[in-house]
Design a protein that fits this description.
Layout: E1 20-22, E2 29-31, H1 32-35, H2 39-42, E3 45-47, H3 51-57, E4 61-62, H4 88-96, E5 107-108, H5 116-122, E6 128-130, H6 147-154, E7 159-164, E8 169-174, H7 175-182, E9 191-197, H8 211-216, H9 218-222, E10 237-241, E11 245-250, E12 257-272, H10 276-286, E13 304-309, E14 313-316, E15 321-337, H11 343-355, H12 367-387, E16 390-391, H13 394-413, H14 428-445, H15 449-454, E17 458-459, H16 464-467, H17 471-484, H18 496-512, E18 547-550, E19 553-557, E20 564-566, E21 571-573, H19 584-598, E22 600-603, H20 629-651, E23 677-680, H21 719-732
Parallel strand pairs: 5-6, 16-17
Antiparallel strand pairs: 1-2, 3-4, 6-14, 7-8, 7-9, 9-10, 10-15, 11-15, 12-13, 12-14, 12-15, 18-19, 20-21, 22-23
Helix pairs in contact: 12-13, 12-14, 13-14, 18-20, 19-20, 19-21
Length: about 725
């Protein structure tokens, strides 16, 4: 491998992170720290001589100042070029200008009044000034905290970004070098420090951000601990500026809201409302080539001047365009935070930054990633509001709509721009779809105050703090419910089989009653008894047959009975049939239709039993032609009810094991009681598997709405059609059982 080229007196290879300067004599490159040349000083050198060349060619030559109003002070001062922002001439002219008072738009409040509840109700649209920081929950170092103290807590070797105000240019230097500059009796330049974030230093322990910024911050509330992306730290900044420092008009990155507190000194803010017209003018001004030559405050209708003195805290809302002048040496603390109150404006500011091609260094870190995290959490918030039967506030609904649009655009952009900030555990398309459904639900079903009142829907706070007392438990319950949905299905509405059984009972009622008994009520009684494992059915009417069932399966036949008790619900069906004569053929047709709908097999009494499947209990005798019609239909209804409950038990995922069933015959005193050959279509005797081990099957629909609009398979008649045929048959051949 080729040896890396070495530079400087230290003979080290090139390091992109370190400032270097080229000697105009030997053409070698030197680290600024090795030859004691600061980056912001390098622009003032016209011809540089390295230490070796300095001995032979003399010291470096410096540039000569020719003007005080241009960023390039070597330009001739012929009066042909306008004043540029940040220069000493510009600062003097700015201080001489008159502006509308900031009192017109500034809200003077006590810290105890600045709460999340207040901002949710009244909005956060205008700057707020608070004069007692303790009421805000803000904690800072004492007013005598100095620049040297900052160096002691942060470390002198920390490299910081410094702005050369006269050139409005950014450069890097060690904190120790800035401290030396600050305390020097003659300051050759005006340097300003506005981006010293100290969350990872010892000084962080001295500062507690305002409660409102902590509670509303997206980063503090929604950024997960296990995120692949590093957590953005933008809540703790230390600003150190000397007199006449100036920062031109700007919107804080990502449209973040800002809190400022002046520890000592004084700052002057020039504030402009973020109206659509002003924002359009700002974007046009920011992209113009002569931006520094135009004072943006003159392009808008009003620019307000707000003086922030020692001990005052200023809260600036989303999107406000502002410039800052340091009228005297000053130390201030501040921080940025995103929140739910102005989501649309935050997204608009971010998209403006993209159009202006703002460098990543000056943008909110991982802005798109945090928007995905917020979208996931807001989906849960909307679900909770719907479950609580209350409308989310209007600002949140508008914010989610804007967020959906932005997420869709970012997802489309993934095709051309591979750099993605979508978190790994988030399904972006599914998340957008679910958010859209929640918004459609709110728009289609719960819009308007009249509808809110008629449906008992009330507006409720939907930010994280308003739900934090119950959101964790609710989301945990929802996750458990979603997991259980794969193992069991608890119907909340009658199944198709329930509806069919009820309809069959009504038909049987009409068949059993005579013309004079049309208004008589059906003698049906349901008793629900909870048991631990199985239910035993025992009841005798005029007959003596008793069936012992467990979990919907027949265990033993003791004597004839028309009472069935099924599985753990202990459902008892008692029905007394009325006696009536009917023609055998019509009766058999009705029975055949009923049993085909119920999923039972019917063996005609005259058929040979050997030609059919085995009956569902053992028989010793063939059915007698003069079999009792009353007992005949009692058993018919008994088997229909039994089949229904059996199917319910199979669908409910019960894990109770059924015992092997056998059949016995009991002969009544006056002779043998013949039985009809009704059979279940399901003849398997294997014990039911545990729900987790059963093969996947399609569960029965929760209600008939699940199959509404779906056509039956070709060649298969619906239960309603089959029952209609039976009723049609009964009209031609009336009969009563």
């Amino acid at each position: 491998m080729a040896t890396a080229q070495l530079y400087c007196v230290c003979r080290q290879p090139y390091d992109v992170s370190r400032f270097m300067i080229e000697c105009d004599i030997c053409k070698d490159w030197f680290h600024g720290s090795c030859v004691e040349v600061e980056e912001h000083h390098a622009v003032d050198i016209d011809v540089y001589h390295c230490p070796n060349c300095d001995a032979h060619h003399g010291p470096s030559l410096m540039k000569k100042r020719r003007n005080w109003h241009r960023h390039d002070y070597t330009e001739p001062d012929d009066g042909s070029k306008p004043v540029q922002a940040g220069t000493s001439v510009f600062v003097r002219e700015l201080q001489a200008r008159t502006f509308p008072s900031g009192d017109e738009i500034l809200q003077q409040m006590h810290g105890s009044q600045v709460t999340q509840r207040y901002l949710e109700r009244h909005g956060f649209r205008y700057p707020i000034a608070v004069h007692k920081m303790e009421e805000l929950g803000l904690r800072l170092p004492p007013p005598d905290f100095s620049v040297k103290d900052v160096e002691r807590y942060v470390g002198g070797d920390k490299v910081i970004d410094v702005i050369d105000v006269a050139r409005q240019a950014d450069s890097k230097m060690k904190l120790s070098a800035f401290v030396k500059y600050y305390y020097s009796p003659q300051r050759p330049k005006v340097l300003n420090v506005i981006s010293l974030e100290f969350s990872d230093t010892k000084m962080s322990e001295l500062v507690v951000v305002p409660d409102i910024a902590q509670k509303m911050s997206w980063v503090e509330n929604y950024w997960p601990d296990d995120s692949y992306f590093p957590k953005p730290f933008v809540q703790k900044y230390c600003l150190m500026g000397v007199k006449d420092s100036y920062t031109d008009f700007h919107i804080d990155f990502g449209g973040t809201s800002v809190w400022y507190h002046v520890l000592w000194g004084e700052k002057v803010f020039y504030l402009i409302k973020p109206t659509p017209a002003n924002l359009a003018l700002y974007e046009e001004w920011s992209s113009s080539p002569n931006q520094s030559e135009v004072f943006f405050g003159e392009k808008v209708d009003k620019c307000y001047k707000c003086v922030v003195r020692q001990g005052t805290t200023l809260l600036i809302p989303t999107g406000w365009i502002h410039a800052v002048l340091t009228s005297q040496d000053c130390m201030a603390f501040g921080g940025n935070f995103l929140h739910n109150l102005n989501i649309g404006m935050q997204l608009r500011c971010y998209e403006m930054e993209r159009r202006l091609k703002t460098p990543d260094l000056f943008k909110f870190p991982y802005f798109e990633a945090i928007c995905w995290y917020v979208a996931k959490n807001l989906l849960e918030t909307l679900k909770e509001s719907r479950e609580d039967n209350c409308l989310p506030p209007e600002y949140l609904i508008k914010g989610v709509k804007a967020l959906i649009t932005a997420l869709r655009n970012w997802l489309k952009r993934e095709v051309t721009e591979p750099a993605s900030e979508v978190p790994d555990h988030i399904r972006p398309s599914h998340l957008i779809k679910m958010l859209t459904k929640e918004i459609q639900y709110l728009e289609n079903g719960n819009c308007g105050s009249k509808l809110m009142k008629s449906q008992g829907i009330s507006a409720c706070p939907s930010t994280r703090s308003a739900h934090e007392r119950r959101s964790h438990a609710r989301r945990t319950a929802r996750r458990l419910r979603d997991q259980d949905h794969h193992h069991s299905h608890s119907p909340k509405a009658p199944s198709n089989l329930d509806i069919f059984e009820q309809h069959t009972q009504e038909v049987l009622k009409r068949l059993e009653m005579g013309p004079n008994e049309e208004d008589a009520s059906l003698n049906l009684k349901f008793n629900k008894v909870s048991t631990a494992s199985a239910a035993v059915a025992e009841r005798s009417l005029d007959n003596n047959l008793r069936l012992l069932l467990c979990n919907g399966r027949i265990i033993r036949v003791v004597c004839v009975c028309v009472c069935v008790c099924l599985k753990c619900t202990g459902l008892k069906l008692n029905h007394i049939c009325s006696e009536s004569a009917t023609s055998p053929s019509t009766e058999e047709d009705a029975i055949q239709g009923m049993l085909s709908m119920a999923g039972l097999l019917y063996s005609h009494p005259s058929e040979d039993p050997s030609s059919s499947q085995e009956s569902w209990w053992s028989r010793t005798n063939r059915p007698s032609p003069d079999y009792s019609k009353r007992e005949h239909h009692a058993k018919l209804k008994h088997r229909i009810q039994e089949h229904k409950n059996f199917m319910d038990s199979q669908g409910s995922g019960s894990n109770s094991s059924s015992e092997a069933w056998s059949s016995h015959t009991h002969s009544p005193a006056h002779g043998e009681s013949p039985t009809l050959g009704y059979q279940y279509c399901e003849t398997s005797l294997s014990p039911p598997l545990h729900p987790s081990k059963r093969p996947a099957s399609n569960p029965p629909p929760i209600s008939n709405q699940a199959t509404k609009g779906k056509r039956p398979k070709k060649g298969m008649a619906t239960a309603k059609q089959r029952l209609g045929k039976i009723l049609k048959l009964s009209r031609h051949k009336p009969f009563f059982v």
